Every structure is written in C-alpha cells, then in structure tokens.
Amino acid sequence: MDRLPLPLPFSADLLWRYPLGFPNVAQPQQPPSSPLMDYKSQLPTTLATDPRVWSREDVITFLRWAEREYDLQPFDMDMFQMNGKAMCLLTRTDLSERAPGSGDVLHNVLQLLVREANIVQRCLPSSPVTPTSRHSYPLSPHSHPPTPNWNILAQNGNDFHSTHAATLAAHLMAQSNSVTLSPAPSVDSQAGSPQHAEACQQTTFGHSIFSSGSNGSASGSNQSDSDEDSFPDSGKSAQNNTSPPNTPSAYSLAPPMPYSMPPKSPKEAASSPIFKSMAREFFPSESPEPNTNGRLLWDFLQQLLNDPSQRYTSYIAWKNRDTGVFKIVDPAGLAKLWGIQKNHLSMNYDKMSRALRYYYRVNILRKVQGERHCYQFLRNPTELKNIKNISLLRQQMSPNRPAPQPQPTQLVHMTIKPEPAEVDQEQSRVQEFDDKPTDLSMDGPTDLSSNSSRHTNITCSPDTPSLRDVPSKNFYIKEEEK
DNA sequence: CACCCGGAAGGGAG
DNA sequence: CCTCCCTTCCGGGT
C-alpha cells in the first residue's frame, strides 16, 4: 500500500468527530452565540442543567423562560405536554412545527444543554455511562468540532489513566458496550449524530467506534434532524489537503489503524491492551465486545460519506443525500481504503463492487442506472443498524423473489420514533434493538422506511435519471424497480 | 477497456 | 458445525 491519504474514518474520524467535548473546548465555529455556560447560568434556577431530567412542569418553565429570553412568540404549551427527555428527542423540524418560528432557537438551546450535560456526566469519573447514552440525544449537529485535540490526547497517550482519557474511555466503552446494542456505526455517520459530543474517543477508537458507533440511534430517531447543520457547505472540498486530521499528530494519535495493522476483527482490536485495561477499569464485570459489530461495508461507506469534515469526498460523495444516492468518485482509492480497513490489501474496485452487489438483494443498496459508480442506499443507517428482525423479514420474504418489490408499507418499525410523549429513562433503555448485522441472505423487500434520521442533501443535483425524488421525509427511498 | 452483473467457492469470525 | 459477510474468481453483457 502506498498511499494512505487520509485517516480512515473509523479511527481518526471518530476522534475527529468527538473531540474532547469539554465545554471550553467548544466549537469555535459555534456561532457567536453565547457559550453554553451562559445559557446555563441564565436558566431558571429551578431547572436542572440536564434538560432530559426535566418534568413537564420544568419544560413549561423552560419554555416560558425561553420566550422571554429570546423574545419568542408565545408557545402553545399544549404542544409541549411532555417531559424534558421527550422534548430533547424532538427534532428541529418537530420543534418548528410545535413552535413556529422558534423551533430553531429551542433546538439549539436544547442541544447545547444536552451536550453540556452529557459532557459533564461523562466526565464524572464515578459515573460510567449508562446504557441510556445510546440514546443519542439530538446533540448538536452543528457542532463539528473544528479541530480535534489530537495533541491533548497524544500527550496523555501514555498515561491513559489520566482522568480525561479515562473518562473518555469510559464513555466510549459505555457506548460500545453497554450500549452496545446499537452499534451501527453508521448511524452516527448519518447526519445527526456525529455530534454525540462525547468526549471520548481516544484510543479505543479503533473499534469501539465501529461498534458503537453510532450512537444509538436507535431510538434516536430524532436525533436526526440535525443534519442540516452537519453539512454546512458541503460541496467543498474535501480534498486531501483540506483535512486537518491528516496531520502527523493526528496520525500519531489516531492513526488510521490504531493498532498496527488493521485489526482483523473487532475482537482483535478489543484485545488491545489499552482497550482491555479500560474495559477492566470501567466495566469490570462486563465482558467487552458483546457485539459483533465489525465494520461492515455499508457502514464504512456511510462513515466516509458522512464525515463531518468531508474529508473523503474525493473518494465517495453524496449525490443526493435524501435519497441515499452517492457516487464513488475514486473507485480504486476507495477500494484501497476498504482493503486497508479489512486488511485485504489486494482489494480492488472489482471485488469491492461485488460486495456492494450483494447488498442489492437485501435492499440495502441499488445501482443507479446509467451513472457510473453511482449507487443508492435503500435503507438509512439507523435502520440498517437496527435491523435485527431480519430473520423475520427473511421468513416473510419469498426467496424466489429476485427483485425487491417495493412495498412501502411493509415496514419494520425498528426505529422507534419517540413521538414525544413521555419518555422515561427506563423505557428508553429498554427499547433496545439488537444489532444483529443485516442479513444479506435475505431477499425480499423490506422497507425502508422507518427512520428517523434525516439526511440532507448536500451536493449535487438530485437528478439521477432513475431516481425519483421522493418526499424528503424518507431518507432513503425506495423506488420502483426497474 | 472499463464497468456492471451475478454465480460459485471459500475463508475468517462469532 | 453453522451463519454471516464478505473475498476472490470468473464468464458474460453493455
């Protein structure tokens, strides 16, 4: 392998995405708006800093406060008969519907508060994250950390137990293990989640990331909305040089391959001394890596596609994010990256594309006819990740049916879209999905609807001949078969 | 020739 | 031993 242009997503990327989320490190890019701390300090003292623990009354209190504070139109409190947790699950769109004209403001404020709360929580040594974390709350989408603090991490490199690292690690572990169940890496990739501003990441990435990747999107259905912000200006470059992470320090800290060669399996990775020690330290009784989530091709692609800093657009890029259409810009290069990821150095586009073709039959992907190197995701990452009932689906599907027949209605609701009702912690933690990997052997149609995360279009025109644009509500829409 | 398509066989991991 | 998810080959079509 000659070139390794950019750090692979999983590792470095994650770090990149989840830079230390300490308050003060907050994103510079963040609009000039007042730092979170300000919000917090101004919040009514009766309110907990974590909006997720607010009661209905607290929600009302908060809204009243927001009305005054931001000069917003009076809210229709009937639209907010929910507790804080539920409110946090509302997407920007949801909020806008409930509070026309003020949705954005509410969304932003909530996200900031949640993120802050998460950070604080996570950084509390004594509280290893609970499974709830998987809940990815709508953490801010807009927060792509401008620059990862590779250096900081690097400095701690040796002493991993430094609080920071430890905490971060704990969090990470939590995410990847306890939360485990929602490993779909991609999820986070999808728009909204990157933000899990989790602070952690460091070392573990290699895998955990994968594994947990994503956040849990599961329920998260809502987290999504954030995407809009995720890609402020996407079209831009991404050329290699643009990327920050590509710096030496980045490599040193989060080298593309965390532990020498790409671990062949998550397990291997998990076996890293560091990982183990952390696991022991934070999850003594629990065996790490319950989940088998290795890196799957679709997930890998999602990660590249949704890289917050758009570092891989020279390899692969969305053509229409809403419909899931993407283009492999550099087939050979992408294949190489994939090969590195899987440690199959002889990987080439021909082989990789074969793997992609296997996704056709399970309706994960489809080829965009007429356009070279263009494919379309038929399922959004959240769904993919949650697909566990695949076996059921499989049973329902007739094996003989070669081509997926789109049946919009037959969905599998795996994603629980928390219609903001009351959501309590218990519940949320229960709605766990398995993360059994998608079963490629199935072949019938399944639906893709569910979802929650929304994708935003970034780039190009929606126009693929064969694609019909669909209501943006569905992320990846399935279109009639040929 | 590059791309695309699937069948077939096999392998690594869980 | 079985399943999943590719990986590797390959013949054939556009």
Which class of secondary structure composition applies to the elements? mainly alpha
Kindly provide the radius of gyration, computed on alpha-carbon positions and rounded to a whole number of angstroms: 21 Å
Number of strands: 4
Quickly count the helices: 20
How far is the N terminus from the C terminus? Answer: 39 Å
Q: Could you tell me the mean pLDDT?
A: 53
How would a crystallographer describe the biggest sheet? 4 strands, antiparallel
The geometry reads as elongated
Please bin the fraction of helical residues.
Answer: 25-40%
Strand composition percent:
under 5%
**H-E string:** HHHHHHHHHHHHHHHEEHHEEHHH
Strand adjacency order, main sheet: 1-2-4-3
Low-confidence stretches: 11-38, 123-294, 388-438, 441-474, 477-482
Quaternary class: single chain
Keywords: DNA-binding, Nucleus
Protein name: Ets DNA-binding protein pokkuri
Pfam families: Ets (PF00178), SAM_PNT (PF02198)
Family: Belongs to the ETS family.
Summarize the structure.
37% of the residues lie in helices and 3% in strands.
Provide structural commentary.
Belongs to the ETS family. This is Ets DNA-binding protein pokkuri. The protein has 482 residues and is mostly helical. The chain is 37% helix and 3% strand. A 4-stranded antiparallel sheet has the order 1-2-4-3, covered by helices on one side. The longest helix is centred in the N-terminal third of the chain and has 21 residues, at 103-123. The chain is elongated. Mean pLDDT is 53; it is low at 11-38, 123-294, 388-438, 441-474 and 477-482. The protein binds a DNA duplex (14 and 14 nucleotides) through residues 264-267, 292, 294, 296-297, 331, 342, 344, 346-347, 349-355, 357-358, 360-361, 367, 372-373, 436-441.
